[in-house]
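help with this.
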Amino acid sequence: MKTYYVNLNYKLEDDPNSEVGGTSHSQYTLEEFLGESGLLDKKVELLTEPKLTKLNQHLKNAGIKTIIPTLIYCIDTENNNMILGQLKNSLNKLIDRIYETAKETPEDTFVTSFKVDDDNIQIIINDIWASAYTYQLCEYTHERLSYYTKKEIKDEILQINNLLYDNLKILIKDAYNYINNNIDDIIDYIKIYKNSSDTSYLSLDVINNQIKAYIDTVTETTYQYQIFDTYDLNEIEELENRVVSDEELKELILEATKEKLSEWKFILENFEENK
């Protein structure tokens, strides 16, 4: 299991103290920067350095804001160690890092979660605003941790881990039909929210074994399962200089749901119950 300290899809920002360089667009990712800078073949070296010193120097030279390291465990899903086993084995280090990040930026809210990236499953600690399309296990602030013991945080992570397992089984079975049966209402709501200042996410939740759909910002969909977002829709319309039709939007949403079904199945194939 490798340890990384930032994701390739991390959204970069301009350095306010620099008068040169900067990002080329608002959704500019670390992967794009590395590719354009000829550094992509050095990504493992740069992203596994605990303080990200070399990477941050490259960013600083380019007029881009440096990155505060977070902790990412990359699970090797090709070996015999299942996700729960890996999580339990790394839990003490994970809890220590949770407390460290809370002390470093006490005003921020952090989330511990799973993320699937190129058929690798990662355990991530990140800012709540970067939690879209991940599977949350624990949300915390510096203040909240002052009231909880490390054992209580561990128990919460493992408890939500069990809930995630149960919810994914329900979503695999029923999510596509639910989306398809409610697609007209979903499209109407997406069209309302697509012009809001913040990206809105179509997400699913499982309540009493029943699926419910919501459309809201990333911070309001924590512990839910995002399917589609208005940023992707607006980007298509901007690039093609036209409004996406309802039928096209339906196809986009259903295709995104199919992709999520494949991801959920992949997770359960590498996931054992804690029961």
